[in-house]
Amino acid sequence: MRIWSLHPEYLDTKGLVALWRETLLAKCVLQGKTKGYRNHPQMDRFRKSSRPLDAINHYLNIVYNESLKRGYHFDAAKFNPVEQKTTLRVTRGQLAYEYTHLLAKLRLRDPGRYALLIENKIVEPHPLFIVVNGDIENWEVIHD
To answer: Number of structural domains, the chain?
Structure first.
């Protein structure tokens, strides 16, 4: 499971669809509707929120909006609109690691998007996240 800290605009089609599916699974985990993935390290950052379901619904709303920009038809009934936006923190090190990880994936499966993003100097987080100083998060599984 990868719930990207990056803005979903960076993802290719395959990545955006996978993010939607995996975040819906994460929502089920937070609702106690599944036995799998309950101990997945990425779930911790949502559980630490004062309002975990609001956080995951806000996250899904942003992914949904990105899908609309691309002309996709994700199901808006799968998440609840959030009136009071919530935020989570992500470290600069985590954001940089994820961007490098994404570029490695795109280099193979979407060279055109890779070429557009490789020169990018500023990496925007998913709007749920506020960027703070720090290294890669301790829950991250490092891939060399």
So the answer is: 1
pTM of the predicted model as reported, rounded to 2 decimal places: 0.93
Using an 8 Å Cβ cutoff, are 84 and 54 in contact? yes
The burial class, CB within 10 Å (0-12 / 13-18 / 19+), for 15 is buried
| Residue 95 counted as domain residue | yes
Residue 63 lies in a domain: yes
Residue with token string 């998007």: 113
Q: What's the rounded Cα separation, in Å, for the pair 121 and 136?
A: 18
139 inside domain? no
Domain limits for position 77: 8-132
Tell me the C-alpha to C-alpha distance, in Å, between residue 121 and each of 5, 51, 96, 144: 16, 33, 10, 22
117 lies in some domain = yes
Q: What is the pLDDT of residues 97-143, one digit of tens each?
A: 999 999 999 999 999 999 999 988 899 999 999 999 999 998 888 87
Name the token pair of 84: 């009071």
